[in-house]
Amino acid sequence: MPNIVVLGAGVSGLTSAYLLSKDKTNKVTVVAKFMPGDYDAEYASPFAGANVLPMSLQANSRWETRTWPELHRLAKEVPEAGIHEMSKLYPQFKSRVYRRKKDLEKLKNGAYAFDGLFLEDPWFKSLFDDFRELPKEDLPEDVASGCEFGSICINTMLYLPWLVGKCRENGVVFKRGNLKHISEAVGMSHTGKKADVIVNASGLMALKLGGVMDSKMAPVRGQLVIVRNEAPYMITKSGTDDADDELFYMMMRANGGGTILGGTYQKGQWESRPDPNIAMRIMRRAVEMVPELTNGKGVQGLDIIRHAVGLRPYREGGVRLEREKIDGTWVVHNYGHAGWGYQGSYGCAERVVELVDEIQTPSKL
After folding, report:
1. Which GO terms describe its cellular component (predicted)?
2. What pLDDT is stored for residue 142 in this prediction?
């Protein structure tokens, strides 16, 4: 009957705790500084769009490939999870990915933050049954090529509490804690016994957490605007004319969650306050790209809910998903997902379960 402490209550920590708790012999405690319902720039999960737009290269596609079927199933079968299929709301539109003419050389050289998303021959065309390359007549003037496919969008305000509920249903106990060193988690199991395994899903905090202190971690500042206007489709573009670290994307969250207008991808930036100049550029790009968002009324036609900033947990070299013994206790790391935490959540959590199983089975070590 192993005692497991999961450090972190973002989407990676919650999904890991959920899958671990499906085995009733596991006694799982989630310890976190931030919980669903909190708003802090370092707690990235509430600020995500969130959707499925594959960002990995094929060699590292396992996490997203394994996650997509589960998120798609939840969208179709579990409405209380707060996920919807965009193409069911607007059958004529799906998720569109545009590759700008100005960005082609940069995309070919691999000098782009999202790696595989804008590939001209993407591996994920086999992931979506309805994937298709767009004909030239369907492309904006500045776009060289693009594709579309049926994807999903998650209302994080509903989905995170739903995950908490599924964990609680399986007996997971949640505790607040602001740890200075990862070894403190050993004594935080709700059972009163020492933890046999710690799952480190601390996200950006892995940069400063004693015993981990991962210097490869860095914040990637994401600023966005949330509006009440309904977006007719999800869309993302490979770049903007405003700045190299600014992006264009738009998606409408399920069940009244508002429409997300983004954004920025500012590596190394910790500023948590929204920049009004960036906000204006985000809104201008949105209404220029999709005039029907405001029925042609421009930025003045946007009904703003709030401006927000979240810090994505970026890790140089990619996600850390491995086991390590720290101060005599096994730790399974699951952090560094940058902007793809949701769309890789189930695949990564499955690997966490595998690693915990290996630790509990000495012959597998």
Report:
1. cytoplasm
2. 93
